[in-house]
Amino acid sequence: MHSTRSSATDMSAPLLSVRSLKTCFPTRAGLVTAVDGVDLDVYPGECLGIVGESGSGKSVTFASVIGLVRSPGYVAEGSIRFGGVDLRRLDSNGWRRLRGRDIAMTMQDALTALNPALTVAEQIEEVLLAHAEDLPKRGRQAAVRERAIEMLRLVGIPAPAKRIDDYPHQFSGGMRQRIMIAIALSCRPKLLIADEPTTALDVTIQAQVLDLISDLRRELGMSVVLITHDLGVVAEHTDRVAVMYAGQVVEAGPTRELIDRPKHPYTRGLIGLIPRLSDLDAPIRPIEGQVPELIGLGGICRFYDRCEFRASKCRTDISMIDVGPDHRARCIRVEEILQ
Amino acid sequence: MKPLALISRITQLVPVLLGVSVIVFVMMALTPGDPVEIMLADQQATPEQVQAMRHDMGLDRPALERFGIFLSNALTGDFGLSFFHRRPVFDVIAERLPATIELTLAALLLALAISIPLGVVAAVKKNGVVDRLAAIGSLFGTSLPGFWFGIILIILFAVQFKLLPVSGRLDFGCEVPPVTHLMTVDSLLRGRPSCFADALSHLILPALTLSLPMAAVLTRVQRSAMLEVLRSDYIVFAEAKGISRRRILWRHALKNALVPTVTVAAIETGSLLGGNMVVETVFGWPGLGRLVVESIFVRNYPLVQAAVLLYAVTYVLLNFFADVLYTTLNPRVRL
Amino acid sequence: MTAAVEASVVTPERIETPAWQSLRRFAADRFSMAAGIVVLIFVLMAILAPWFAPQDPYETDLLRRLQPPAWMEGGEWSYVLGCDALGRDILSRIIYGTRISITIGLAVVLIATVIGTVLGLAAGYLRGWVDIAISRVIDILLGFPYLIFAIALMAMMGPGLQNIILALVYKEWVVPARVVRGEVLAAREMEYVEAARAVGAPRLHIMFREILPNILSSVIVVSTIRMAHVIILEASLSFLGIGVQPPTASWGSMVADGRAFILDAWWVSTFPGIAILALVLSINVASQGLRDAFDPKFSD
């Protein structure tokens, strides 16, 4: 399960490459910079975890990637390259061809993400009709339906041929999540953005859905971005991970390395929150304080107010520094903290 | 809606319908003037004859018994005699009803045809030109007195430009054997295009007048429903699927945003019933509304009583229908 | 309504009550404010009708029968909007007609709001059989289309100013009653009400001194919107000939008077209708502004 990416790094270029991404939302109180200078790479076939609290900018980052930042928000700066294409230069037709076919997305809650007024069949078939080029001219409708049923079978919906004409509300929560995954994957995208795929689910079903995503990733050979606030999920299902805080990536590296040797005080705080079998007795220490308002930040480490290691030299803009093999963190006191 | 929920909803109708008929009964019982004296006004009736007539009509019995008779007669469609027409009230009403139904349906269709596209475009291009015009339009639609607007339309289109007839339902010479008793439908069914054009030209102004306040309300409902739907997750998810914008708006969004509009339309159809009286009077439309207004002046109370009861029952049933419609159309509240 | 948004961002220098803040928001919304001023002008016109009216609205003069407005051939400026079939000055009759519309609009809404508020409070706060009884009556009254109910009542009671007010109040009180009942049901669960209950405040005290002030703004907003509705209803009744009776000048009956002359004297029907439209439109705009100002969550 924990395939290392090192071999992939050497051989292939990143599938998705985000550089200095900045996404803003004008509000009454001022301009909110929800994503502020994010750099990320996703390599073919890997699973990248994105961890952070709500408001850390993890969802907005990938809404920017797929071009669906909610109005009135907008991408202000940076580059987003996918398979060599500059996504920021796409027109609406270009986006339409890309979405669903090359990059697909699942949302947190399938109950609200699936259209309550349309049957499951229609919601899968419309993606296939929009993108699949290899459909036969004759009997197109039948071919699409067959493929839709096949997708439902793939994600583990029992009796898919019978249930495909049901409405979303007629399925259980876990089944709905599977249907949403089936829709997202129906055109075999190269990249799946899974935004909090398990938050809305019961614990027992969470594991099933995550295993399903991992299995399908291998089977279809796609890359997955797993957005979550749960480091436990990351530890089990991702190859690499990026931790986000207040609109920035504060630490990134191979999953095992990052979890075993966290460098940034925020990551260390998060890991303190994972109850591990080895130290069940260890007290869980929540991080005190709140994510700062994302208006007019700068000139100071964003974690300053909540950091137990803060010092006067942290009162400056901090950039990412190398802290290990393929492992970077946004903290200038790393060496001192580790003492 | 599951049968059980439907049944319980239907049983809730009973006390309301009963209450409505009590009110109608009491209203007419309190009406000044003895109906018998009105009926016998032009005849030299002896007190004995009056007494006999009172007895025949059951007016000398206790109130509760009279209500029972009224109710059981009403249930069998017996509303007594329209002494003005010298015919049963039921027959007189049945004769006038199709004209009112035609006008009401035309107004309903017109209101939907105006408000749905307008509301959708106003929501999609929020604060755009169409949105602003729709806002002003619906403000006027709710503020216009229908009787006056109808007259202005007549002055403009019938008197000034002579495009449309001033009043009535059909010109003489267009006799179409009835099928549905709706002139526009019948003329088409019988293959009489010239009569259809004539019926339509008579229908258009009253239908427009009647539909305007409803269109104003429905445009607002459609707009705000659409705005809410457009904010929802499933629209974002649909956009992430890379399907066409047109499909997202008119299939994904509209199918959900129509639910409140259709529900409100069913309720508002009830208020068209009231508007009918005014509009039919203005346009000389030979429907039930005008009949009721005329009947008040000639003190033809049995007819007024029957018509008011009919309106109220229709209104209650429309509201019930709206309720059922809402639950059937909206899978999430399906019981 | 950007003006309203800006006004709410400004931090008030003094401590203001919410009602005062709402009124300031309303004043900042120029469109609604202008409409409010138009409504006030109509009210003034009603009160000071004899001073505003250039002619005696009841003086007939058959020589001026159907005299056209001043700017048309045969018109004269002392009868700006022309004359009706009895040679009465239309402008003066419109000005006097304001009295009917405003009086009935105010009286009906005021009486209905008082009755509706009391019954709504009782139903929402006392619950039990009181609520069941009141809600049943509301349900039944809602079973009648408004205009038809009013027409039937007028047929029963006969025409006249008092009867119109009564006929409309009989159904109008349902509107505030439902609003108040709903608000009270929500308020019952609020902390301030529970606190008052906890210290043993008497029911009437809680209903009228604790809950009522908190829901008053929604009641006022609803009442102003209903004014417009009631004015149109009265005009409709008078138009049909079962409302205000001649020779009293009422806008609805003036429009009806002109129906017979639409072929050669369009002004007789047109101008009174414009007056109705102007007043109703202004009330609607102003009450929309009030609603936005008192309850910003409604506007989008």
UniProtKB/TrEMBL annotation, chain B:
InterPro entries in the cross-refs:
BPD_transp_1_N, MetI-like, MetI-like_sf
**Topologically, how does it sit relative to the membrane?**
Multi-pass membrane protein
- Intracellular or extracellular location(s): Cell membrane
The alphabetical list of record keywords is: Cell membrane, Membrane, Transmembrane, Transmembrane helix, Transport
Q: Residues in domain ABC transmembrane type-1? A: 97-322
Per its UniProt record, what SUPFAM superfamilies does this chain match?
A: MetI-like
Q: Name one Pfam family in it.
A: BPD_transp_1_N
Primary site of residence: membrane
What domain of life does the native source organism fall in?
Answer: Bacteria
Q: Which family does it belong to?
A: Belongs to the binding-protein-dependent transport system permease family.
Q: What is this protein called?
A: ABC transporter permease
TrEMBL record, chain C:
- Domain ABC transmembrane type-1: from-to ranges: 98-287
Keyword Membrane annotated:
yes
Coarse class of the protein's main subcellular location:
membrane
Task: Mark the transmembrane ranges.
Answer: 31-53, 103-126, 146-170, 215-245, 265-287
The protein's matches in Pfam families, at most eight in alphabetical order, are given as: BPD_transp_1 (PF00528), OppC_N (PF12911)
Q: Which UniProt keywords apply?
A: Cell membrane, Membrane, Transmembrane, Transmembrane helix, Transport
The record describes its membrane topology as: Multi-pass membrane protein
Task: Indicate where this protein resides in the cell.
Answer: Cell membrane
Q: Which family does it belong to?
A: Belongs to the binding-protein-dependent transport system permease family.
Q: What is the protein's given name?
A: ABC transporter permease
Q: Which organism is it from?
A: Microvirga puerhi
The organism's lineage is: Bacteria, Pseudomonadati, Pseudomonadota, Alphaproteobacteria, Hyphomicrobiales
